[in-house]
Amino acid sequence: MEKQNIGLIGLGPMGQNLVLNIESKGYEVAVFNRTSTKTKKFAEGTAKDKNILPTYSLKEFVNSLESPRKIILLVKAGKAVDNFIEKIVPLLDKGDLIIDGGNSYFKDTIRRNKELNQKGLLFIGTGISGGEEGALKGPAIMPGGQKEAYNLVEDLFKKISAKASDGLPCASYIGPDGAGHFVKMVHNGIEYGDMQLIGECVWIFKSALDMNSEEIAQVMTRWDSEEDVLRSYLIEITGESMKEKNKKDSGYLIDRTADITRMKGTGTWTVQSALELLVPIPTITAAVFSREMSQDKDLRLKVSKILPGFREKYLKEKEQFIKIAHDALYLAKLSSYAQGMALMQAASREYHWNLNLGEIVQGWRSGCIIRAQFLDEVTKAYQENPEMPNLLTASRFAQVVKESIGKLVSINEVANRAGVAAPAMGNSLNYIMQLASPVMVSAQVSALQRDYFGAHGYFKLQETDKPEIMKTPEGKIREFHTQWMLPERPEEEWIK
């Protein structure tokens, strides 16, 4: 019997479309699904007369693959992944490769990589972005694992991935063990931030300017034009979805859509990772918290009848404000991306992944959900200076900050006066303001508060007008403690 080039387990919509994509690039594929009826339906439907072999047991599935076997898992993250790995490992030979293409938590991927490596098996945790359409037509692919494992599927990944405008495939080796799934997790966190920022902008238009869905859709379509810096997949689908009419009346679907946004966990993991790595990602965090608040619909309905509302109209020229909103949204998005990049930099140091941020962003330019025109500029910025301390310090983006920070302030003011909750917009602004502050007075206050109630110590500046921290001749930061309970308070160096 002729062996298949690759196998896939999990025939949900993503799995089916990815199989069709792989087969269309000249590969022979074996498929298996826990529910055999789904396998049969797929085989007799869209997979009919293609080089796709349906199998109905894991043993049949594994035996149908050429050596070294390459198996893609597209099943629900968590226990389902572990369960399938446990079942297929006894059927495999050393050197065979398992590819987890789901949204697994990166620490689970690190664990699985280590466990399988000890058994002589290869493992790649692979982030795949683009949804069902991307799986079929070309997704962005973010693989992490052993380099020799990636070498086995490099040709396949590059052939099935999306291609950017310059023809480069949106797939490249990310790094060892959990690097691929970490990068996909951050991608999703940035996606949360992007969606929230666009949603807040729409809310401001509706509340402050009394714009209807059709008018806002036209603005989004304009912003998605060829040369616009905001051109992106999310702007495009926002415009398209806001034009959609409700089937039962003459209104718009968005006006009948319940204000509840669900989530599957990657945004929450991003925030948790940022807390562990001590990296501020306030825009992404605001987006996650806003989704959580949206799910408290009953509570919001009750509270809205008790607490007074606040709403002022924007009385100045509408088109001028739309231009302000355009530039403010662009800067807010840059702030959010800078936060995501900073998180990846910190993780790269912590886990020794040696992430190439320019190459990662280059792979996001097509296929994935956050694909956007300005990612070309982000890619160039990292190619010019891979070691820049923060994305916003790149000259091209520092100029945007200078030109648009006042506009981001303005849109936040208008949102507040219009009674619009815009936490992502506000946090994008505050991130920039804190990042650009040589001295944060609020932190000075907190430092002394902690020393006062808990004797936790504090650092000191060289002089009142010099923001540099005092250090010992050996370069160690000096800590101080004040004897707050003594009437005469001698200052002494803090000794731990």
Q: What is the arithmetic mean of pLDDT?
A: 94
| Overall number of strands | 11
Q: Radius of gyration over alpha carbons?
A: 26 Å
Strand content: 5-15%
Largest sheet features: 7 strands, mixed
Describe the overall structure.
This protein has 496 residues and is an alpha/beta fold. 53% of the residues lie in helices and 9% in strands. The protein is built from 20 helices and 11 strands. A 7-stranded mixed β-sheet has the order 3-2-1-4-5-6-7, sandwiched between helices. The chain has a two-stranded antiparallel sheet with strand order 8-9. α1 links the parallel β1 and β2. The longest helix is centred in the last third of the chain and has 34 residues.
Give a brief description.
By secondary structure, the protein is an alpha/beta fold. Helix content is 53%, strand content 9%. The strands form three sheets. A seven-stranded mixed β-sheet has the order 3-2-1-4-5-6-7, sandwiched between helices. A two-stranded antiparallel sheet has the order 8-9. It has a two-stranded antiparallel ribbon with strand order 10-11.
Descriptive key words:
496 residues; alpha/beta; seven-stranded mixed sheet; two-stranded antiparallel ribbon; 9% strand; globular
Topology:
Elements: E1 6-9, H1 13-24, E2 29-32, H2 36-44, E3 52-54, H3 58-63, E4 70-73, H4 79-88, E5 97-100, H5 106-118, E6 122-129, H6 131-137, E7 140-145, H7 147-160, H8 179-209, H9 213-223, H10 233-243, H11 253-256, H12 266-277, H13 282-294, H14 297-304, H15 318-351, H16 357-362, H17 375-384, H18 395-417, H19 423-435, H20 441-454, E8 461-463, E9 466-469, E10 480-482, E11 491-493
Parallel strand pairs: 1-2, 1-4, 2-3, 4-5, 5-6
Antiparallel strand pairs: 6-7, 8-9, 10-11
Helix pairs in contact: 1-6, 8-12, 8-13, 8-15, 9-10, 12-13, 13-19, 15-18, 15-19, 18-19
